[in-house]
Fold Stage 0 sporulation protein A homolog.
Amino acid sequence: MNKSLILVVEDDTSVRNLITTTLKTHEYRYLTAPDGQSAILETSSHNPDIVLLDLGLPDIDGVEIIKKIRTWSNIPIIVISARSEDTDKIDALDAGADDYLTKPFSVEELLARLRVTQRRLSMMQKVSPAEAVVFVNGKLRVDYAAGCAYLNEEELHLTPIEYKLLCLLTRNIGKVLTHTFLTQSIWGSSWNNDIASLRVFMATLRKKIEKEPNSPQYIQTHIGVGYRMLKVD
């Protein structure tokens, strides 16, 4: 039986019922919160495994909730929102969200995102000795064993997906990684909006590791194909 506890933060009753019914059918435990204040209370009181968060809540904007939760917890937060502009996604990801699912969404995609998040959590808890190495490229350093990345000896505050992207690129330095390879590696599937989400995550990652994101030093874009980690002296 799946014992993960999911907090569903959604003010729309029909959407909330759809999500909770799906979770119950697939043997997830769940809590619900119809507004931001309840979300913060439930998160601090019950420490759920994953939060599914709508941004358009009646009392507090979802981005502010992410920021508040991030002051004390690294719990995975998957945004589920009707806001589909890249700027909205970037704002949420910059605040600390781990993933972004745009409404309307399919039940299958929601379940896939949950499975990927669970796998990622499991992998972070199990580090094999073979992975206990440090990657250095210019002023960028990735400590795979510790699950941390540094630039100029200062720790980078990356979301789990940003860190996974960085690891994929650094482990394949000099190689062009295709959109399909990256989306399959991150989400385990290639949904229609995955390439758009990949572009957003890459933009937020670049903002954190590139001195000039518009003239990248580390991550090179191959238009229509994918991305490549460049060797830096």
